[in-house]
Amino acid sequence: MRIATPYLGLLLAATLVGCGGGSGSTVSVSTAVKSGPAKLSSVPTGSGTVKLDNLYLVVKELELKKAPATGGPTGTSGPTGPTGSSDTSSDSSSHDVEELEAGPYVLEMNVTDTGLQTAIPATVVPAGAYKGVEFEIHRVRSTEKLNLQATKGGVKLDGLSIVLEGTCTGPAAGTPPVTPAPTPFAVTSTMEVEVEYASPFVVADGAPSNVTLAFDASIWLAGPGGTTLDPCLHDPKVDAQIMANVKASLKAFDDDDRDGEDD
Questions:
Q1: Alpha helix positions (H), the chain
Q2: Residue 36 phi/psi, 5° resolution?
Q3: Which of 96, 134, 245, 247 has a 20 to 30 A CA-CA distance from 2?
Q4: Cα separation of 251 and 195, whole Å?
Q5: Cα–Cα distance between 108 and 50 in angstroms, integer?
Q6: Residue 169 lies in a domain
Q7: What does the longest C-alpha to C-alpha distance in the chain come to?
Q8: Up-side HSE of residue 60: CA atoms within 13 Å toward CB?
Q9: Distance between CA 144 and CA 262 in Å, rounded?
Q10: Is 0.85 topped by the overall pTM?
Q11: Which domain holds residue 106?
């Protein structure tokens, strides 16, 4: 998974439930949407301008991967494999992971919000060294109850895993020119993918820890050869590339001070 680096951002605090007994610490998981130099409130496209508003991500589960008992955390920051692991099977035993139950849970991110927002209640995981984090993006099934059943734009999340919402505004027309009212759009995905990041960190007993899932929104509408993808066209191929860009813009890292940067 290729990750772009220019960041300017939003943090959305989200803490997931931890399993296991013994001493431990509160571990929070935050999401950060970062725009870089792009002005996400007004992106020029072939059909007018686009404003990006909200991103919804359905997370089925999150796991902290324990470091080997005979050694320290290993690995370097970033996803495993060229595009992150997309294998939905797992060879991890209960002895080397600390599962964070998500529910599944919908993470709702306002692209233009720069404040912290609590999304999932806090709890405790065992203290110790961890070698990374693994999480699964998963589509919603009709039998699953979520913290959110629909987006702010009214899109039902049943059967979906990612939703990006915004508005489209066409070019001004007439004499004198009049700018038309914005119309809403939603780009959706049913992708199910398991992603693992080898980003070592330590959970100290009694001390709060935080992991951030960061999205670089400046590449979401990036097309080939410097072009801009236009969600207002409602073209399935364009929408699929936008969703691939959303996935590719994501990374996870230790962020105890919650500044949106890798500690």
A1: 236-248
A2: 60, -145
A3: 96
A4: 9
A5: 20
A6: no
A7: 76
A8: 17
A9: 33
A10: no
A11: 9-38+58-145+190-226+236-254
